[in-house]
Amino acid sequence: MESVAPERQRSSLDSPDSPTSPQSQGSLSGPGSSSALVLLPDTEPQDPYDLGSDEDESDDERDSQLEIQRLPIPPLGSALVFLYLLSPYLRLGALYITDGTEPISLWHGLLTLIFASSLSAFCRHLWFMLARYLRKFTLEDILIEAFVRGRGQGRQHSFARNSIVCAIALFRVLLVAMYFQDSVNSVLQLVPEDMQSFAHPYIPAFLAFFVLVLSVSDTVAAKPVIYASALSVVSYVAWLIVVSHAHATGTFQSITSRPQQGVLWNMYSSIVFACTTTLTVPLSASLAGSLVAWPAKQHRARRFKLLNASSAALAMFLMLPLVVFASLRVINNGRTSVISPGVLVPIFRTMTLSLAIPSAVVSSPMPRLSHIGRYTPVNPVRFIFVLSAVLLSIASPSVANIIRDLTLVLACSGTFLLPALTHITIHYFRRPLAIVLPQASQSVHASPRASVSGPRSVSRPSLDPLLQRKERYLQRRRLGKRLLWDAGIWLILIPVCTCAVIWAVGCLIGKW
């Protein structure tokens, strides 16, 4: 049995001038045949853009195990992936909806919420399809593949990777600083006014220590980070119940001013900011890695589509009452009615934001200092990360407004604009990846082996006309399945992002 498999493999892969067995010459190719036999797989590989395909990717088991080891996040179950897909929606952006001082139209608010959440789910699925198409596990690898020319690990790739990591780390620091600042302001509502100046420096220090304790782990798959994220979602639900009860009972308190959040912030931008997300690429790879070892074939693409759509729908349902409350806000003589702080509202708000910080800190790309990390319980880079966020959270109001505006721009660009540009660059300015042809056949003339392999390089099965014909057919089929997503990008996503950029520039220069 062991000698049959190699012989069959040679008869189907070797060139015509290579020695073959008499049985294969007589019964398969004939004595006068000069064409190589090509062994095609029985099942066609799954296209990531196929909406109706039920087949799984035909990955080799050994390659799948190697891919699992390379995942940035260890394999997670569907429940945990759903948790991390849902939790970014129920954070600061949703809390800001009730902080606005101007009333909004109910229909405009509902349309903004539905449209923003739908675009968020659409862009998440774009990242998922790009990750499967390129077989990449991190956002940095996808961006390098799209916007950096050449292959290998040269100086250009290293510079690009470091630049992307620094941009992601900057966004996470600014986002965590906003979480710290809002948490501190919420806690200060429970402190008497004559004690607030004394307690203000100690509250950020206590929250920073609390976050560092929960951020000791190196991955979001650790139990402390999972429990913190789950409790953050529970705290948001409790906060929503308290706010709904306050609106139902009419317990309001009139104030004359609210702290300014920045030039770009209003009720509609708060709704859009609530629909911004992160960690889509590593979470989709983690979900696929958890399904590799299952005995039965699972529909990975459909599983992620279901989790993505259900998380966006549930988040929209949990933010819907806030939009209704904002539309019912009444202005009388320049005084805006807002919810009375009470005790439960600031407590649940602080818990929602402070428990959401560990996942943002742990998931941030940070260099590992192994020679220093042996002697410290916390990664020194992570300590600097949290310290920088705390220092930015206690900055002056003018600096805080700049931080809020910059965070809003980075969050919306990374969620809506970046996946559209990446999709366009990969599929319109890059050569399409081969489906059935080996990758080596695309660069056979540039390979050093091509000059010494003689006539074997000309008659390789990868250059067989039948295989090339099937490759062209599958490429046209892939293009046809991608037309729906291309239409959504060119007709909806790009125009909306262009209008948003024009509006943001106009606000920054003071035109409107």
Query: What amount of the residues lies in strands?
Result: under 5%
**Structural class computed from helices and strand pairing:** mainly alpha
Strand order, sheet with most strands? 1-3-2
What is the number of helical segments per DSSP (H or I, 4+ residues)?
20
Compute the CA-based radius of gyration: 28 Å
What percent of the residues sit in helical stretches (DSSP H or I)? Answer: 55-70%
Q: Which blocks of ≥5 consecutive residues have pLDDT under 50?
A: 1-35, 51-64, 254-258, 293-298, 330-337, 440-462
- Report on the biggest sheet: 3 strands, antiparallel
- The shape, in one word, is globular
State the separation between the terminal residues, measured CA to CA: 79 Å
| Overall number of strands | 3
For the residues shown, what is the average pLDDT?
78
State the order of secondary-structure elements, H for helix, E for strand. HHHHHHHHHHHEHHHEEHHHHHH
Task: Kindly describe this structure.
The protein has 512 residues and is an all-alpha fold. 62% of the residues lie in helices and 2% in strands. The protein is built from 20 helices and three strands. The chain has helices at residues 4-13, 22-29, 61-69, 78-86, 92-96, 106-134, 139-147, 155-188, 193-199, 202-214, 223-249, 267-274, 280-292, 300-327, 344-354, 357-362, 370-373, 380-393, 397-428, 465-508; strands spanning 252-255, 331-332, 335-339. A three-stranded antiparallel beta sheet has the order 1-3-2. The N and C termini lie far apart (79 Å). Mean pLDDT is 78; it is low at 1-35, 51-64, 254-258, 293-298, 330-337 and 440-462.
